[in-house]
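pasting input
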Amino acid sequence: MSAGTPRSLPSSGQKPIQDICHPLSAEECALSRSPDVLNPCSAGERDLILPNGTPVDTSSPASSSSLLNRLQLDDDLDGETRDLFVTVDDPKKHVSTMETYITYRVCTKTTRTEFDLPEYSVRRRYQDFDWLRNKLEESQPTHLIPPLPEKFVMKGVVDRFSEEFVETRRKALDKFLKRVADHPVLSFNEHFNAFLSAKDLNKRQGLALLTKMGESVKYVTGGYKLRARPVEFAAMGDYLDVFTQKLGTIDRIAQRIIKEQSEFLMELREYGPVYSSWSSFEEDLHDPLEGVSGCVSNCSSALEELTEDMSEDFLPVLREYVLYIESMKNVLKKRDQVQAEYETKLEAVVFREDKKTPVPSDVEKCQDRVECFNADLKADWDRWQNNKRQDFRQLLTGMADKNIQYYEKCLAAWESLIPLLQDKQDAKGETN
Amino acid sequence: SARVMPTQERKLFSSTLFHKIFKAHTSLSLKKCKGCLYKISTSMVEKGTSLLKMMEISVAEAEKRTGKNAVNMQETYTVYLIETRPVDAASEGTNPVPDSLWRRYSEFELLRNYLLVTYPFSVVPPLPEKRAEFVWHKLSADNMDPDFVERRRVGLENFLLRVASHPDLSSDKIFYSFLTEENGWKETVFETGFQAKADSRLKALNATFRVKNPDKRFAEMKHYGDELQSVISQLLRVRARAADRLYGVYKVHGNYGRVFSEWSAIEKEMGDGLQSAGHHMDAYAASVDDILEEEEHYADQLKEYLFYADALRAVCRKHELTQYELEMAAQDLTSKKQQREELATGTIRTFSLKGMTSKLFGQETPEQREAKVKMLETQIEEGEELVKERNTECEEFVKSAWVDIERFKEQKDHDLREALISYAIMQISMCKKGIQVWNNAKECFSKM
């Protein structure tokens, strides 16, 4: 874990625009890339790759926990054979005359026939993920679409190119794609396919605009009033309301703890050195005092790691869920609208005609829509609840683990000090 | 009243305490209060010279009193119960009721001031602080606060034990009557006239600036005292701030307890795990109170040596004073001898008013000169006596003081080492508790 100023990523450097390869092309120009990039997913042969294609970064303990994260995500499918594996990694900064941005490598391994090739490696930027999500929302309105990490970042406050920020974002994007890939319906979506496999997501800007319009065209349902919300969907709404509230509270508590710990850390960083300066004018006590100073210093480093971990691993996941819930509430609203439309139209028909004429097809269509929506939503809800349970179990267990590790480091430091402190004591005892 | 534990239990500890003292040169004694360990060292106890060998001493209780003070105004103050008992009685197995009397803090101060003046070559043990300093926000700065009173009780007992085990101080009669005679003790102290013997601050300051050849060791010791005082002050200040922050960290975790409980209400399978994890978070938040209370004892141990630094400097200042007075006397003698020489040879090397006036207004008569010489001779004789006296004084002071300083150095090294060990043990205990709580919480989370 970095201890101070966040580090920036290697940049592609300033180049004339003609010389810069399109960042989204699968074959990257020979910049500062490692040779295995061109065969990114033949990595299966290497023993440091997980079954779902994720490369393992073993350089820090934090990543070994994210390793566990990925493993557990796999275990969730109850032995189901997975045939689609997606990962997001290798963030790189691209500098052009127009703008500077980050792209991520998206690796896919699959046996599905919907895909032309068994493996893909493309580069995508945040905009592209956003496009994908919009397309999914538009084309699968009855399903719960996983959230993306926050789009906008206040320029002055957060460094968009710092290693920590990019890594946090990368993890969230990885999780997003994995959730989509795990979904029995969404994973077969054509836009998802294109996202994973196409060299160029062409005219994505135009498409994005169209998407927004398309959405509003499809669901001009403003006027309809819902009679009675079915109990189970009302319960979902209530649950989400309370849950969001609790998540907000937990976020605030976690932030407060981080703040208090940071201030405690500040004091510790002043406290330790005082023992050092004391030792400088002591003889017998020199070593013990230096020892205490070193101990305090070790504890300080351990604490710093803890707060950094919590900032980077804990808070973002909470926020992600808050976004998730927001989008879910929107889906619930849409469902209400669809039901309202159906009820209104049905009422009109019932009042207008006698029972002998068949129900008009558009009303029938509405009924279908309602039933499909309800079915999809229920299935997604159950799956969401299950995933939520696992996610939070993992998140909170992770939090406990981090705290345990912190105390274990401190314990080791103080325990190793005791013999040093007692050392002279024994020697003295012997001479007496 | 602020009672720590039943008197029976305390007596048991007292026996343990004093039994150990008989043994080695340096020994550790333990006193238990409120479940914490407060280590008192009575090092370098020489058999046969220490009061502690004959008598058990403790400050058992503290009580609030109200009464009229010197200006006839109502005031509330705290008194401390000093219990003493002959050592033989305890070791025989019988448990007679100890003798006891009540004293207030100001009487302890009076005792100490008396000792400072009467034994200027001793590093006199310090009293616990008069007012609470280096407090962090949850710690009360109020002298009437029960926690403060309790810590003061322990500090006063420590003071008495240290004096009672000091090779020189322990045999003092005023000290003995402080422990045994409730009435009239104050008068007895004043009757010693010690206040008159005290050196004025101005005199001492003057000596510090003007002394020419102080013993190097004492100069170094004084410097050491300065540095020790400075570094311990800093340490205590930062520690107090850190304690404040640590308190905040632990307490905020208590909020998790509440929100987990609220959250568990809307969950089915996750509910139980969340709820029980929340309880562990509450326990974690609550644990900081004990942790910081124990740390306060560590702070008290440091404070003792903060104040000891002052006592050490006092001895060094006294040396400077005696050395200065010797130098002054020697200087005076030299000047008088020179004057005599001048009168004898008629040369004037030193300026004197008499010399100038006699030059201006004519020589004096042989009789006058004779008288002068005689007077000088007397003065020189007296001066030589004075120089001899002061020289002896100075030498003796240096000898006694250095012995006590060496004794103090060993005591300090021992005590502070012990304090650091107990501090490390405290930290270890805190870490272990933390690991346990979070492991408990983790178990609950994994069952979600």
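fyi DSSP finds eight helices and three strands in chain A.
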